[in-house]
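Budget justification aside, the reviewers requested a transparent look at the raw inputs and outputs of the sequence design task funded under Objective 1. We therefore reproduce one unedited record. The lines immediately below are the structure tokens for a 159-residue chain.
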């Protein structure tokens, strides 16, 4: 599973966020809440959904599944002029990303992340950059369906 290395241009996102940890994973709750309100975003650029994680700068230095991070459910917009009530804007800054294609049920995502962080990253010539990580859930995303596909974007920089 070789990634595509790409320079991301800055993106404007609107959505909702929630604090959680891997041991207290509230992703389902976050997405249920977002999907109920999604149609209130009148200026979405497309149907892609962003599942974005914002980690503390030291999060990966001493990994602990109880460490909190911020998770967003969002869509891309052209501007922040129409932010619905009970939603927030997020400016995703540009930079270099390694993009992996995860194929299979969302529940199998752990295997993809183990490969990325345990095999690919240590041998890649890149290090993890301290910017948000995200997944793009596009037209081929089907949650727990074995034929589901999603893009996993990992922020990296050259060693």
């Amino acid at each position: 599973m070789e990634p595509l290395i790409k320079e991301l241009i800055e993106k404007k996102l609107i959505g909702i966020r929630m604090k959680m940890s891997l041991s207290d994973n509230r992703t389902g709750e976050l997405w249920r809440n977002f999907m109920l309100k999604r149609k209130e975003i009148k200026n979405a650029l497309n149907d892609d959904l962003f599942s974005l994680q914002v980690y503390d700068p030291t999060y990966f230095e001493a990994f602990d599944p109880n460490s909190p991070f911020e998770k967003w459910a969002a869509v891309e917009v052209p501007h922040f002029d129409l932010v619905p009530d009970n939603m927030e804007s997020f400016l995703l800054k540009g930079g270099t990303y390694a993009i992996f294609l995860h194929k299979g049920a969302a529940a199998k995502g752990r295997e993809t992340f183990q490969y990325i962080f345990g095999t690919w990253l240590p041998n890649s010539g890149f290090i993890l950059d301290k910017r948000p990580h995200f997944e793009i859930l596009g037209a081929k995303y089907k949650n727990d369906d074995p034929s589901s596909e999603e893009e996993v974007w990992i922020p990296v920089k050259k060693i």
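The radius of gyration is 15 Å. Residues 4-158 form a domain with the Multidrug-efflux Transporter 1 Regulator Bmrr; Chain A fold (CATH 3.20.80.10). Computational costs for records of this kind are itemized in the attached budget.
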